[in-house]
Amino acid sequence: xxxxxxxxxxxxxxxxxxxxxxxxxxxxxxxxxxxxxxxxxxxxxxxxxxxxxxxxxxxxxxxxxxxxxxxxxxxxxxxxxxxxxxxxxxxxxxxxxxxxxxxxxxxxxxxxxxxxxxxxxxxxxxxxxxxxxxxxxxxxx
Length: 141
Known about the structure:
single chain; 6-stranded antiparallel β-sheet; 3 helices; about 35% strand; globular
């Protein structure tokens, strides 16, 4: 596994890009684990007034992707997402949602990350799985 950068470095990577623009922050980095949070505001809601699914996916997918960056093989320059899946269990309208992404499989040819998104009360509102391919980028710049 590559050296783990700081939470501040991970947040700096998101500045000016979709995760930073919606207000997402990384809150914790650990071995094979990364966590983050996002405060809900009206612009992140769907027309029905509930949290937009794309907001939840952005939080979970970004944390899985940042985690993948931390776990790349030494000769990999990056990764490509092969597949992602979300299962929504609930929603909310305000407060701060949190997410924890954990590495389930850290092979040389694929990584599988699972993320759980929680509402402000700690209830699961989404389960997310992402499969990444670091091997596609080996030797590429």
